[in-house]
């Protein structure tokens, strides 16, 4: 390669390096420069379409419920209301009927009243002190609490007078202080007595042998009873059984001996 060609080649490389360096500097300055007016205006237009603050957003209207057709006073909705100021509590604590609405009652606590409303189609019973269906026996409105307490004392067994043996004579009266005295002092051997025997729960191997011994059966294969009634018949029991964990072969055996089989109700 001649000297002239070498100079031209070297000059070409130098110019290329210089051009590349200047191009990188120019791109860096453009990226660090502030935004142009057109770009800022576009940003402002974009931000103008969004809500500037939460105060500009309209809140949804409050929910309203339709009045209960069974409620005589539509001004009060279901649930609690803090305003029972117009009601005077007869006692410091308790439930008391509203004088103007059978579906409402007042909950009194420390002489302060809170108005309550029964669920739909229910009415507050002043005697029962809870919301129930509207029937002929429904006691609506305020009542005299003193009369209710007197009626409760009249029906209460605890309020009965003490046993006075000198004033209580058969056949119109009989009483005993401890519950063990037989009327007219009849000897126990001559007194008809009845004992009710019932078993509750599953019938299986855990209780099978125990029940047999209580009822007077001998070994597992013996159906003769050693415990009998005065008439000579074997005693009978009622089994209130349930399906879970029961052995139906053992249930069938007791049923074959004449015992009564019953089941628990769902309630």
TrEMBL record:
<dbReference type="GO" id="GO:0005576">
    <property type="term" value="C:extracellular region"/>
</dbReference>
<feature type="compositionally biased region" description="Low complexity">
    <location>
        <begin position="25"/>
        <end position="58"/>
    </location>
</feature>
<feature type="region of interest" description="Disordered">
    <location>
        <begin position="25"/>
        <end position="84"/>
    </location>
</feature>
<keyword id="KW-0732">Signal</keyword>
<dbReference type="Pfam" id="PF01607">
    <property type="entry name" value="CBM_14"/>
</dbReference>
<dbReference type="InterPro" id="IPR002557">
    <property type="entry name" value="Chitin-bd_dom"/>
</dbReference>
<dbReference type="InterPro" id="IPR036508">
    <property type="entry name" value="Chitin-bd_dom_sf"/>
</dbReference>
<feature type="signal peptide">
    <location>
        <begin position="1"/>
        <end position="23"/>
    </location>
</feature>
<dbReference type="GO" id="GO:0005975">
    <property type="term" value="P:carbohydrate metabolic process"/>
</dbReference>
<protein>
    <submittedName>
        <fullName>Uncharacterized protein LOC113796437</fullName>
    </submittedName>
</protein>
<dbReference type="InterPro" id="IPR011330">
    <property type="entry name" value="Glyco_hydro/deAcase_b/a-brl"/>
</dbReference>
<feature type="domain" description="Chitin-binding type-2">
    <location>
        <begin position="86"/>
        <end position="142"/>
    </location>
</feature>
<dbReference type="GO" id="GO:0008061">
    <property type="term" value="F:chitin binding"/>
</dbReference>
<dbReference type="InterPro" id="IPR052740">
    <property type="entry name" value="CE4"/>
</dbReference>
